[in-house]
Amino acid sequence: MSGGVRAVGDDGAVARTAVLWCPDWPVIAAEIVDGVPATGAVAVLHANRVVAASEVARADGVRRGLRKREAQSRCPGLVVVDHDPARDARAFEPVVAAVEEMVAGVEVVRPGVCGFAARGPARYFGGEEPAAERIVEHVAQACGVESQIGVADGGFAAGLAAREGLIVGSGETVAFLAGRPVEALARPTLTELLRRLGITTLGAFAGLGRGDVLARFGFDAALAHRLAGGGDERPLAVRRPPPDLEVSEDYGDDPLERVDVAAFAARMLAERLHERLAGYGLACTRLSIGAVTAHGQELHRVWRHDGLLTTAAIADRVRWQLDGWLSGTTRRGARTAPARPTAGIIRLRLMPEGVLPHAGLQPGLWGETGEEKERAHRSFNRIQGILGPESVVTAVLGGGRSPADQVRLVPWGDELTPTRPAAPWPGRLPSPAPALVLPAPLPATVRDAAGEPVGVSARLLVTAAPAHLTIGSGPPVEIVGWAGPWPVDERWWAPAEARRRARFQVALADGSAFLLSLAAGQWSVEAIYD
């Protein structure tokens, strides 16, 4: 890929964002740290699936998401490398340092991607295009790493532009995004649904009403809708935290010089920061990491995260950063190693530069910290490593018409973004919610007082009042109360998946209560009320 940029337009100076992106970074990091030649067929795997591949491997058909065996069948000479976020972050530190030599206020989005405000370097170098070219050239000379820069109104559009080396003119971001496929949102479930509805581009998605998207697709889709329309990727107002949220530790008697010792110190400091934030009902989104050496040298880096930084996430980023400072990883293609601290670290400081309200979130089953929680997390990660990410899932509430639809299962470790809509979901059952949703509906029979089967007409009228319910081969039980029907006509745009049904709530003489559904003349029990 070319490291240069080409301008789409330039209508004037406004608040702009620049993103630097290093292609195939996990592969490049494996070459920098472990010496795996990135010019060959290389694939980086996590949980037995490809997360990154070299250009040679992609030419042989290796793609992200493939299982290891399928990737090796497509490319017999494939070199497989385990995914290591710490390695990626350690190798990326010299790149960030090189960018900081040219601009101020660099934020690490993730290893291989960093962002900064475009206005400063654009004014200094005489425009966004010359600034981008100078920064890309400097990174190549200092680190031997190929990179691309994208500039646009907002981080989301700038990140997409970086993959093509584009400078999107001020005010042209909406037009730039309009023709992009919906896959650019990186939300596979939403993407699949939109494509089934015939919505294939960001422009078509952005053309939908904001309220309709929120009501029908949920909160996460509403955020994606904002991105598709060129809005800020952070609709929640990030505020400056009060100064007493900063945590620090002095190590004057025993300076931090080894990475393993520094990692332990990072863990302890991360737990203190997380506990302090929790005391204020806050969570961190941008983390400032500062260090002072015994010779007075000051080191500083800002890490940015799209979600909320947990204790483990804070500790990981601090550990990665300390590893990058202390290890002195040789830069790819460079004759010298990056500047290391002149002495051991005697002071470490963490300060959340961006926080959000974190109220109303229920603590985990094992609490916030402690040995039990860590042991559980390690067990989950090990299971996922053996059986795949879908083997351990977490239930997240969302929108839907039936109780089964209102819960989605997210792989353990992924962002648990709630998708519950602000407004009632159209066709949703009234309260109360059932206590038990059956994994497979039970066959049932509903009859009236004369013993005849009860049905629902095309006008949604009950043929007779339900009087008795029989579940499976059990005895009939008298129905003492019922409500409904609530009709559902789903996926009408996909004939193979379309279904129509009517739902009823019934209370029986024995004190039990059930959620029933009638579809194609067959009654079934979907859920049980407490």
From TrEMBL:
**TM regions (residue ranges):** none
* Protein purpose: Poorly processive, error-prone DNA polymerase involved in untargeted mutagenesis. Copies undamaged DNA at stalled replication forks, which arise in vivo from mismatched or misaligned primer ends. These misaligned primers can be extended by PolIV. Exhibits no 3'-5' exonuclease (proofreading) activity. May be involved in translesional synthesis, in conjunction with the beta clamp from PolIII.
Question: Could you identify this protein by its name?
Answer: Protein ImuB
Q: Do you know which InterPro entries this protein is assigned to?
A: DNA/RNA_pol_sf, Rev_trsase/Diguanyl_cyclase, SulA_CellDiv_inhibitor, UmuC
| Organism taxonomic ancestry | Bacteria, Bacillati, Actinomycetota, Actinomycetes, Micromonosporales
Keyword terms of this UniProt record: DNA damage
* Gene Ontology biological process terms in this record: DNA repair
Source domain of life is Bacteria
Q: Where is the UmuC domain?
A: 41-162
The family assignment reads: Belongs to the DNA polymerase type-Y family.
Tell me which species this is from. Answer: Asanoa ishikariensis
Region labeled Disordered — which residues?
Answer: 232-251
